[in-house]
Each structure stands twice: as structure tokens, then as C-alpha cells.
Amino acid sequence: MKENKKFLIIMPAWVGDTLMAQSFIIKLRLDNPDSIIDVVVKPEILELVNLMPQVNNKYVLDIQHGKLDFIKRLRLAKKLKNNKYTTSFILQNSFKSSIIPWFADIPERVGYLTEFRNFLINKGFKYTKFERPMVERYLNLIDQKYHISIRPKLKILNDIKQNIIQKYNINIDKKNIMLCPDAEFGNAKKWPLSHWLDLANSFDTDHNIFFLGKDTSINNDIEHQKKSKNIKSLIGNTSMIEVIYLLSSADLVISNDSGLMHIAGAVDCKIIALYGSSSPFYTPPLISNDKGEVIYKNLDCSPCHQRTCPLKHLNCLREISAKEVFDISLNYII
Fold first, then answer.
1. In sequence order, which residues have a C-beta less than 8 Å from that of residue 63 and are 6 or more positions away?
2. Which helix (H) or strand (E) holds 176?
């Protein structure tokens, strides 16, 4: 009798990457329906992964981004060693992310050969960062011939959704538009705030406009420059799980290339995605063609993949006007 496999996945550190990694997990589950699929995640990603039904067990690694903290990694590796995993997939590219599977004595350790970690990974793949979309880069670790994107899909529970809709007074009799001006990676991925405010003020009173995100520094500008009481900022006031359910209730989501954009795709929203310094080829919103579109000016200087604009003008995003986004949005909320 064939022994069922036990997989340990070292999950990405960012929200958007985690959503794209769900496509990998879905494919792994389809190929191995009776297997155990466990994951190692950062604490801020846990609520997101809890909505991925393909995952069995989650192990939290509470280490600040960029820090080694060798002792915590060793302790978790010793705990996981007892689970006798057959294979580990390391979806991060750092040396330190490969330490746990090695110390846990997992016999097959799969990942990309980056940061001199050849001895930690025994089934390695050559890494070229922007050669293929990130989802395909993950899927390539399972099947090198597999190049069809599987869309991520989070499990939304209707009773929780209704509770959150009531908590934030979401009027489902109107069109609810969620605006997502954040991008944790850096300012080069952020459409200018003045454009966001012009866009919000373009909608009439038949639409409720909600700003979502973490950057509370823009709340004062939103409050003083909004022209309608139907515009409301929830920035800094919601948990991860609440944001997920709020996005699932939206009639349209307009977002920078960010984690919230990928969450919106995973809860089957209509999306208008704004790209500048990043690439819509590399990290596209994983939606069907009728669910939205990307606005990208494809300037000579983009995508630069930098945290701040190296040319100091951010023209890749400034040249996307509020009127252009508003006009496109009307195609999705009529």
C-alpha cells in the first residue's frame, strides 16, 4: 500500500505572495488528495491561511522580517521533526527560510537555488526572478511543464460576512466600492493620494466609498478633502479577517498592486488594478477577464521593481488619471 505523503511548506512572508502561493497549494492537494499539507507562517499571515481549506496544520514562526533568530527556528525544527514529513517546499528565497526543513531532517527539500543554500536544498531549481509569473514560479516546483495559473480562493463563511457587514454598516442596497491605496513594499507602488481623493469624490451618492489599509497617516487628508458623507476611511480600524470579508462584500475593488489586491481576487471581486513600478506580467491579479482589468502605462522606466522611484517623478503612476480610473470603473458597477 502506497504511503501518503506529508508536506511541509515554508510560506512566503508577504500577503500577496501568500495568496499566489495558494495556487501552488491547490495544485499540490489535487495531485495528492490524501496527503498532509502543513505550513509555517508568520503570525500576521495566519488569519489568511486559516481560510485556505487545503491546509491541514499551521505552525507560526514569530520572527521579525529580515531577522535570523536561529534559536526560534531551531526550536520549531525540533518540534516539526516528530511529524516525519516526506517533502518540504521552501517558497521563500532566503537562506534562513531553508534552515527549518534541514534541521527537521525532511528527506526531500525543494526550492530555488538562491543565497548559497545549495546544501540546504536537495531538489533545487535555477532561479531567474522575473522570467515567469510568480504563480508559475511556485507551480514549477511541482511540475516544470505546468504553466496554467490556478486561481486562489479563500473560504468565506456567510454568517461571519453578515456580522462584519453589520459591524461596519455596509449598505448592500447601494454599490460599495473599496479603495486600497496601500502597498507595503514601498511608495513606488502607490498611486498618488491626490488621485485617490479625486477618484473618491467622482462617485455620486448612489455609491458608498470605503478606504481600506494600514497607513493611518492619510486619514486626515481623506477626512478633510472628501466631498460626501458616503466616503469613509476604515484605514487602521480593521483586522486582517475583517478586511478579507469587507473585500468579499464589495461591488468593485480599486487597488494598487498589493496584498489587498490579491485578497480581492481570492474572494472573487471585480478589480481595477493600478501598476507602476511593478509588473502586471509578474504579479497579475488572478481573476477572470470579465472580473476586471489592469491599468499600466508601460513607460520606458517601468517596471523598475524599486521601493521608491529612482527618478523621483513616479510618472508610471501619476500618468494614470483619476478620470481614467473612474471611467473604467463605470463598466463594472452599472
1. 42, 69, 72, 73
2. strand 175-180
Residue 198 CA to residue 196 CA, distance in Å, equals 6
**CA nearest neighbour of 197 among 233, 238, 171, 246:** 233
* Residue 110 φ/ψ, nearest 5 degrees: -110, 135
pLDDT tens digits, residue range 152-184? 999 999 999 999 999 999 998 899 999 999 998
- Side-chain-side CA neighbours of 56 within 13 Å: the count stands at 15
**What is the 8-class DSSP label of residue 172?**
T
Q: Tell me the average pLDDT across 127-147.
A: 81
| Cα–Cα distances in angstroms (integers) from residue 302 to residues 7, 194, 296, in the given order | 38, 21, 9
Once rounded to an integer, what is the mean pLDDT over residues 106-110? 97
DSSP conformation letters of 72-87: HHHHHHHHHHTT--SE
- Could you tell me which residues come within 8 angstroms of residue 201 by beta carbon, excluding any fewer than 6 positions away? 225, 226, 227, 228, 231
Helix axes 259-266, 15-31, angle to 10 degrees: 40
Give the strand order in the sheet containing 6-10: 58-60, 36-41, 6-10, 87-90, 108-112, 123-125
Q: How far is 29 from 111, CA to CA, in rounded Å?
A: 18
9 near 88, Cβ under 8 Å?
yes
Which domains occur in the chain, in start order?
Answer: 6-139 (3.40.50.2000), 158-333 (3.40.50.2000)
All 3 cell numbers of residue 135?
504563480
Q: Tell me: pLDDT of 135 over 80.
A: yes
pLDDT in tens, 16-36: 999 999 999 999 999 999 999
305: left (phi > 0), else alpha (psi -120 to 50), else beta?
left
In the chain, which ranges are continuous DSSP H helix?
Answer: 15-31, 46-49, 70-81, 99-103, 134-139, 158-167, 193-200, 219-225, 240-248, 259-266, 315-318, 322-333
Neighbours of 53 (CB within 10 A): 12
